[in-house]
Amino acid sequence: MIEQLRPRVQQIADELLEAVQAQGRMDLIVDFAFPLPITVISEMLGIPAKDRQQFRVWSQTIVNVPMEPQMEDKLAALEMFVQYIKTLLADKSAHPGSDLTSGLVQAEERGDSLNEAELISTIFLLIVAGHETTVNLIGNGMLALLEHPEQMRLLRADPSLLPSAIEELLRYTAPVSLSSPRWASEDIPMHGQVIRKGEMVFASLIAADTDPQQFPDPEVLDILRQENQHVAFGKGIHYCLFPSSLARPSRSSSPSTSDRSGDSSGDIMRR
Fold first, then answer.
1. Cα 174 from Cα 171, distance rounded (Å)
2. b/e string for 222-234 if b means 16 or more Cβ within 10 A?
3. Residue ranges of the domains in the chain?
4. What is the CATH number of domain 6-177+240-260?
5. pTM here?
6. Rounded distance, CA 54 to CA 71, Å?
7. In the prediction, which pLDDT does 244 show?
């Protein structure tokens, strides 16, 4: 579906860049990295434009590292997010459109596919994982290129390197640094330690993607890297449900950003 939306993704990217062109400067996150994926995903799901900024607040609260903010803030944000999705599903049931949410609701009502709990989980995942990871990839990826101007020059000189550049930026910047929590089903000896049955475990994706046994010179950003079996999207049954929602919008955005940015070697303000 994202592939079919590629012309629209490119249009949104161009419009966002046109909007800041006259200023001669931009806040990459506020002006581009956030509005691009949330607009694409919201249009795909049939979510009104007025509600999109709230998703940013909820999702940032939910996906921040454990205990920061406090767990009660996470649970409150999650409850409001789920309640919003329930209201959205009810609205799409009463007033279906041509969007993906309406299609999923109609399938559920026919008994063809997902039940309500599965619908809520799917839409939640698409909104949070689809936009939050893309924001991180665009923002951290651009910063990485600015900090490695020789790689930026390579990419500008040969746009055909874009697919391998995105894979390398996924590996190097880790849009998601930790997995969702897992719980040990039994005692697991590992490297002289024991993970006890029932203990919570987080897998560090960024550590896996900088493993020197898997990647030669893992601390080096190399957009020409060929053997790049990173786990930025997870692995096996935990592979990202909708990886194209992250990578393909970025592929549409990258040429526009690079082409219009001119000399990007000036001052960079980090927030």
1. 6
2. bbebeebebbbbb
3. 6-177+240-260
4. 1.10.630.10
5. 0.79
6. 19
7. 43
